[in-house]
Structure to design on (358 residues):
């Protein structure tokens, strides 16, 4: 704290990202990175673009990438907004569509960065409690009485639970809130949930956010995007162009485009992650863990007798990093990223040793 902090800075609730260890040979299952690496074609394209052209600013609209992304969903580039990771897209979206309105609705257990954006932009939020199995009823998602809500934010699949909402539930939420913007954060959608991208043309109150960080294994490149009707996207552009005209560097635009077009690599790696997720789920269940059904590249698991914090520390001493959150409802749970088949074996071996149920 410094006396020079603004009142805004004093009120911030910064998000704490998972640890990125600098050294040591950790099996890193704590930040939902993809273990398989980006498309070789993306790496090749980035290498080829690493030249004198870097003296020039990039295309501020990333038009080639926007066109390719839009085309995949039957949409035009005007439906696509690109940002420096989906975290930045989310931040601009919160600023563009939620600030200055009534409280937005969030699940009580969800991606904690949403609360950071609320603090940053002075947005109030109301929690919709998930049930005992961390599921939600679409009927719960509407403004109450005379107080319509200022917006709705749902991660699908949810984080850190991994639980997906069916498309019919999203459609119901959109239909019962025609005057409320519904933001669906699909960071993990490619690992087994249904995307709402196909509903963008039909619903003007829908904004879908996706990322290249997970299913395209480009967390280090920082590329995310939003899909919505053009007038909505224009609002996000206004915020972006009042903040940073060039959020995506030339290498990011080139690499993301090549990754987007490498359908074979995308399909092969996500299928592998889903297969290992099933094996990891069964293995952990056999060791006394309750594992939520995941449609993402991570599992959310709680052991019947051993506290999550003990497991976290024991795994760390064995060289395995997983993620733990301290919010009361989930403090006895661990979020475990699905790594390579070998990483999953190492995790199961370690949890087997710790639980005595190898
Ligand atoms: N949404 C959710 C639900 C996430 O878990 C993450 C990753 N931490 C993000 C968005 C942001 O991902 P990125 O900024 O890497 O696109």
């Amino acid at each position: 704290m410094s006396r020079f902090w603004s009142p805004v800075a004093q009120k911030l609730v910064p998000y704490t990202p998972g640890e990125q260890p600098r050294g040591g040979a950790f099996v890193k299952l704590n930040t939902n990175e993809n273990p398989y690496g980006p498309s070789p074609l993306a790496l090749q394209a980035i290498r080829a673009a690493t030249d004198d052209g870097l003296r020039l600013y990039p295309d501020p609209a990333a038009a080639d990438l926007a066109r390719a992304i839009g085309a995949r969903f039957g949409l035009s580039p005007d439906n696509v907004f690109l940002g420096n990771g989906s975290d930045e897209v989310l931040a601009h979206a919160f600023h563009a569509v939620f600030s200055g309105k009534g409280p937005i609705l969030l699940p009580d257990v969800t991606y904690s960065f949403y609360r950071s954006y609320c603090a940053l932009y002075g947005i109030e939020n109301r929690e919709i409690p998930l049930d005992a199995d961390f599921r939600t009823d679409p009927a719960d998602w509407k403004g109450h009485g005379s107080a319509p809500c200022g917006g709705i934010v749902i991660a699908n699949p949810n984080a850190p639970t991994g639980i997906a909402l069916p498309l019919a539930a999203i459609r119901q939420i959109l239909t019962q809130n025609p005057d409320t913007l519904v933001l669906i954060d699909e960071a993990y959608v490619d690992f087994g949930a249904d995307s709402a991208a196909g509903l963008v043309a039909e619903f003007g109150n829908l904004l879908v956010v996706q990322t290249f960080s997970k299913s395209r294994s480009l967390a280090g490149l920082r590329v995310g995007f939003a899909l919505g009707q053009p007038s909505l996207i224009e609002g996000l552009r206004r915020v972006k162009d009042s903040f940073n005209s060039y959020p995506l560097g030339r290498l990011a635009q080139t690499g993301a485009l090549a990754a987007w077009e490498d359908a074979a690599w995308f399909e092969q790696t996500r299928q592998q992650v889903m297969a290992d997720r099933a094996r990891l789920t069964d293995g952990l269940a056999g060791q006394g863990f309750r594992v939520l059904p995941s449609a993402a590249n991570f599992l959310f698991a709680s052991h019947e007798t051993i506290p999550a914090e003990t497991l976290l520390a024991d795994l760390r001493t064995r060289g395995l990093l997983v993620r733990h959150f301290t919010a009361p409802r989930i403090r006895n749970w661990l979020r475990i990223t699905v790594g390579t088949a070998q990483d999953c074996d190492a995790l199961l071996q370690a949890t087997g040793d710790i639980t005595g149920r190898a």
Residues 85-87, 111, 155, 159, 185, 187, 211, 213, 219, 224 surround 4'-deoxy-4'-aminopyridoxal-5'-phosphate (CB under 6 Å). The chain has a mean pLDDT of 96. The chain has two domains: 7-37+264-355, 41-261. The chain is about 35% helix and 15% strand.
